[in-house]
Every structure is written in structure tokens, then in C-alpha cells.
Amino acid sequence: MIAAIRRRMRKLRSRYLPVVARQLFRPRTRLAVERWGSDYGGWIVPPSLLSASSVCYCVGVGEDITFDLALIRRFGCHVHAFDPTPRAALHVAAEAGKIDSYHFHPVGLWSADAELKFYVPRNRQHVSHSIVNLQGTDEYFVARCRRLSSLMAELGHSRLDLLKLDIEGAEYEVLRSMLADRIYPTVLCVEFDQPMPFRLTRAAVRDLRRAGYQICSIEGWNFTFVLAGASGATA
Predict the structure, then answer these.
(1) Contact 125, 134 (CB under 8 A)
(2) What φ, ψ does residue 46 adopt, rounded to 5°?
(3) What's the confidence (pLDDT) of residue 14?
(4) Residue 67 reports pLDDT greater than 50
(5) The whole model's pTM is what?
(6) Mean pLDDT of 21-28
(7) How far apart are CA 129 and CA 70, in angstroms?
(8) Calpha distance 171→150 (Å, rounded)
(9) Domain 25-108+153-227 has CATH 3.30.460.90
(10) Long-range contact pairs involving 147-151 (C-beta distance under 8 Å, separation at least 24)
């Protein structure tokens, strides 16, 4: 009985919380936006803030790089993608192995340079693993992780024009370290993974707003932020 009630509560939460979130965190910019990528892996972004010279990091590849490749097709920019999952590496090799402007790095993103456990999903058909053990499983693999500032220094980047985070609950820790290091991507795409506590999402959005970000778009739990001062964005 208790297990059934919990399942019911999770279903209600997943159905109604996105509606609450959209009412609470309403987009506030007047930027024109477009959606690129598949139904599953696509993102809504403002094309006016990107160009051929944009530095784009897509963190959390899984088995869908349609958004990453859309950036390359639209702008001709270079995209750096990060994911330590072996299945992600195989997918990238098959879909983008011959694309010179797509750079895949088999590492994870965290708030420190460390070797960390990535826990498997409950459904083994799913590819996404979680540092924070989002689904409460026992099996894991160990992979190298880097702090965002470390990755940028290693790759020789002094700025980010776009950062996409789809990292299974690790986004909160990464966002805190990003702001602590005063790294402010112009466009910031974040999936706030569930079932992490909603208070964490609310606190993360508050901190990003304090740092000068405005919400450009919300689609489910996918939030697109733009930095105030970017063309058309307001503080």
C-alpha cells in the first residue's frame, strides 16, 4: 500500500510540478527563440546570440546529439561535448566521428577534478548515469570528472557562448561551482532533473538571477537562461 501511494505521488509530482515551475519561473526576455534537435534531445535557444565563432559546451551526450549537430549546421561553430558513458562514446563515433568541428571528451563534469562513481539507471535500456545516484541504484562505473574552470583552461577557452547541462542531478553542484568561478556563459541550457527536491531548483534559479541571468524559455524541466546585457536580454 505504501509503495503504491509513493508511486502515485511521484506520478502526480511529475505531471503537475512542471506547470507550477512554469508559473513560478516565467520567461522574461523578448529574444526570438528557435527549437533545434529531436523531440527528446532538442533545446530552445536564441539564435541571435550565437555565431560561427561561438564556443559551445554540451555536457551530457547520452545517445542523442541532434542539438549539438544542429548548432554546427546552423552556425558552423565548434562544439565540445562531454560524457564519460561508454555508450555515449559509441553513439558519437557512429553519428559524428567524421565531423571535424565536433569534439568529444569522455569525461564528466562536477565541482572538482576527481574520479567519481556514475550510478546506472533503473531501466538498463536507458543510457544516462548519475553521480548523485538519482535513481537509487547500486551498480556504477568510475570515471574522471573535471571542474568547468579546469576544462576551459585545458581547452584554452576564456569564455563560453553556450553551455548545455543534461547531467542527471549533478547540475546543482556544477552551477554553484560555475558561479563561484565567475564563469557566465551567454546562453545557459539546464535540465533540472527529477526527482531532485524542488527547493534545489528554486534556489538554483534564484542564484542564477542574482548573477544576472534571465529565463528565456522553459520546456518541461529544460530551462534556457540568457545573461543580462546580451542583445535583447533584460536585467
Answers:
(1) no
(2) -90, 110
(3) 55
(4) yes
(5) 0.89
(6) 67
(7) 24
(8) 16
(9) no
(10) 147/109, 147/110, 147/111, 147/112, 147/113, 147/177, 147/181, 148/109, 148/174, 148/177, 148/178, 148/181, 148/183, 149/177, 149/181, 149/183, 150/113, 151/57, 151/82, 151/105, 151/107, 151/109
Rounded CA-CA distance 202/166 in Å is 17
Ranking 75-89, 121-135, 159-173, 176-190 by mean pLDDT, the lowest is 121-135
- Residues 94-145: tens digit of each pLDDT: 999 999 999 999 999 999 999 999 999 999 889 999 999 999 999 999 999 9
Determine phi and psi for 137, rounding to 5 degrees: -105, 170
Count CB neighbours of 186 within 10 A. Answer: 22
Q: What letter would DSSP give residue 120?
A: P
Burial of 93 (0-12, 13-18, 19+ CB in 10 A): exposed
Q: What are the structural domain ranges in the chain?
A: 25-108+153-227
At position 127, the amino acid (one-letter code) is V
Mean pLDDT across the stretch 27-49? Answer: 93
Q: How far apart are CA 41 and CA 89, in angstroms?
A: 16
